[in-house]
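Fold it.
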Amino acid sequence: MSARNILPFLRLLAARPDLLRGLRTQSKDEVLTAAARMRLPFTSDEFDTVVWDLEERLAERRDESFDDTFSLWPVMWGQFYLEYLVNDLLPSLGATGLATEGAVR
């Protein structure tokens, strides 16, 4: 398993809206299985750690608090979590330079 596969997986979903549509309502386990089938395996714990770390670093880079006032939280509501990651978090990471492979600790 590899945490380094998480950003490439999200980028793949950004480039392939059909895949995102197909996975957005799936369980986390089903998404992990799909990622592994795409040869981008990672574990649930790796996913949680990487996403949380990137969100926290994004808040820091934006000079925001990483709490309930973080500016990305409101955009999450009303959409599927996977869509939020692909459509909102990933572009925000890119705009701040945090979407590079080296950004994953």
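Residues 3-98 form one domain.
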